Amino acid sequence: MTSLLLRLRRAALRSLFAFIYGPGATLYDFVAWSSSAGQWRTWQQAALETLPEDRLLEIGHGPGHLLLQVRSAGRFVVGVDFSHQMTRMAARRLRREGWAACVVRARAQQLPFRSQAFNAAYSTFPSEYILEPASASEAARVVKPGGRIVVVPGVADITGRSMFDRLARGLYRVAGESVGSTQGWDRAMNELASRLGLHFRAESVAQDKAVVLRLVLDKPVGRRNHARDG
Questions:
Q1: Kindly report the CA angle at 29 between 14 and 85, in degrees rounded to 5?
Q2: Distance in angstroms (rounded) separating the CA atoms of residues 160 and 162
Q3: What is the dotted CATH code of the domain comprising 2-218?
Q4: pTM score over 0.85
Q5: pLDDT digits over 24-73, tens only?
Q6: What CA dihedral angle connects 59, 77, 90 and 9, to 10 degrees?
Q7: What is the mean pLDDT of residues 10-30?
Q8: Where are the domains of the chain?
Q9: In whole angstroms, what is the distance from residue 145 CA to residue 132 CA?
Q10: For residue 212, what are the β-bridge partners?
């Protein structure tokens, strides 16, 4: 029964992601806000805390909020997303604030960048594509030796005390999205890291109203790229 519920849940999530990254793109912010008890923008900060200052790649930039924040801080960043709708939304958001639209429409499994082009790559609230071997291999390829890949998958223990927080905490536990039951995110990432010769660690990041899961993959100095050049 548990296995069946898990399969049904994953199928429902795939359908949801397909909708909000396509015809329902304008609802993305609401879905992200409501599914994180209003904390998603705060949870995203966990990805930035361990990254170098410059030459960053955001994989799956969505509507571009974090992309704009990073660019506005004076850091060089490029965003990549396969969704037409998200690419347009992020580009408009950047241009409104006077920044060049540093976004590229492409699949995470086939990044159109040369090898070792970035100091680090990060992804927040990604769907299951980020766990595909091709996605991890491409991220590792475009990151320099000594660089880093950071994933914040939207897994958290909500610790706030409001009624909204308590309700969300219960839903996260039932859905298996609490840090104590990560539905295999850490295990899957560890397997990918081992296959690619990366060093992996899973971290619990304490914030004001939540403890957020952060997955970090470090590329050793001297590691060669075996995949294609972009």
A1: 65
A2: 6
A3: 3.40.50.150
A4: no
A5: 556 566 566 566 666 788 889 999 999 998 899 999 999 999 999 999 99
A6: 20
A7: 54
A8: 2-218
A9: 21
A10: 156, 205
